[in-house]
Amino acid sequence: MSSPATPRKTKLPFGSFLERILSKLGLRGRTLVIAIPTLWLFVFFLVPFLVVAKISLSEAMIARPPYSSIWNWDDGVLNLTLNFGNYLFLLEDTLYFAAYMESVKIAFVSTVFALLIGFPMAYTIARSPDSRRNILLMLVILPFWTSFLLRVYAWIGFLKTNGLINAFLLATGIIDEPLIMLQTDFAVYVGIVYTYLPFMILPLYANLVKLDDALLEAASDLGAKPAMTFLTVTLPLAVPGIIAGSMLVFIPAIGEFVIPALLGGPDTLMIGSVLWNEFFSNRDWPVASAVALVMLAVLVVPIMILRKAQAASEGASQ
Amino acid sequence: MKYLFAISTVAIAAAGAVTAQDQVVNIYNWSDYIADDTIEKFQEQTGITVVYDVYDSNEVLEAKMLTGSSGYDVVVPTGSFLQRQIGAGAYQPLDRAALPNLVNMDPDLMAAAAAYDAENEHATIYMWGTTGIGYNIGAVAERLGEDYEVDSWALIFDPEIAAKLADCGITMLDAPTEMLPAAMNYLGLDPQSIEPADLEAGAELLTQVRPHIRYYNSSQYINDLANGDICVSVGWSGDVFQAQARASEVDAGVEIGYVIPNEGALQWFDMLAIPVDAPNADNAHQFINFIMDAQITADITNYVWYANANLASMPLVDEEITSDPGIFPTEAAKENLWSSPVYNARTDRLITRLWTTVKTGQ
């Protein structure tokens, strides 16, 4: 989260010529370095975003593509037709609000569980001796080498009525009737927490590994019990890691479609499935686009503001 | 030297296959919907490489067709979806001269399919079937008694009966334009009605039995029925028969039956069509003509257990299939079959909204 106070000037051996040209153009090497990600964001974020914004202001129709054009060129006159009805429509039906709230709830609960499970794991990895640390980190990352979809399907095998968990519980006599776990919200939570757990562990680990042992020793020298040290030293210092990990879990979990579609029940109402319905069942791309943009405005913008405020307060405290 | 020469010829031929546009055909078909050797035979006979993708809902296909530039050469929409997509200009007219096997097709069924595509200009029938009830014979008898005869939608739509079956799992297709009419049909309403009041009545019945439904999905039930994970499904005829076949292969004591309910059922046609922007339209015609070959169609029906509309293939279809009233309905049952109307955008939105209410309570 810290940026170098003064940019260091290093002269690359081959760079002086390039640098001279660039400075003639009013560009510095730094501008160029920033230009690449900026261009990337422009092409792969801003342009698609504007396309979606455009579709959200058009009208659905049976055609290819299935929406009207918002402008037309007629005898030298440019006509612009913006249809805001799609946004108003979202207010008319409580379904959309309910779906937003349900998505936030599922994402929030999943984030809390991911944190509760991920924190001890990250802590253990960070406190392990160097030799073992890499192996443990590897074990966290390893599942990424198989397809995400396959791993979700594997959970179907675990959770279904005739699945492994029920077979085990029945065989050991813990239950008499198979538990119905698949196609429930429970399965969705399991799926989301499982899938996004590494996104919680890695930033937490990166944070906890920097924790200075001297601080812990000082706390214990001053008479703090381990629990006290954890609550007053480790935890406050881990806050940036907790926030970063929680964001990485919370934000994608809100828009999650695949996990609820495969593991969830029919009454698992998330914004992803509402979008799917608008897009596929209603063939109403404009309303689908409006749903997507409202989600961006309602959920992502406050998160960005929060993030900014947090960064500012961190900067102030340093 | 000769050997080397042969290799270089093959290399050139292979390079040609990649560059020459007319050597590939891209098929987009329903999952579990073709014989295991059909594609291989086509490739052998024509030298055209087949790229084969699958989907499990008309909505997914429709989104691709309406977006355009899907890259597919042959797709298989169901009648009412085909009609709307033709309206949007998504398909090209078939070149009849390139389809000599059209003579094999059953004129009566083609006439019925012409309701969706005037004069069969854009499409020919691939397979047809009904949307009825698939059930685990043993599990249902255990819960409802050996004497209970499964012949009515009541198995699913009567809340008392459904409650008794809920523990072993009832599933429905995630296809509102099939489920709502079925519920309306059970209530004695016209299943083809587009009146909001009728559709709402159907949705209300679906909501009543909602607590007893395990899930809504249009492809998963095949395996789940076969494995005994669920015991009653509203399903497509051939899919249920595939579940039956898989269950008997596994031989774990699961026996699956399929019934067209007394009250009636939806009859649908899946149609072979060529998108207007198909990159290999000539190969697409070759593929469609190949499918309409009597032996090839018979092989597919024998494999997927869906009825075809190919008169010439009938003698080649297994007796077991042609005599099954679940696949080729009796004359009496045919009278109660209905076809899906084309809904306008407003009705579509109402149906989707009602379906969401049924599924989520919202």
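qc> Chain B has two domains: 2-129+268-329, 130-267+338-360.
qc> done
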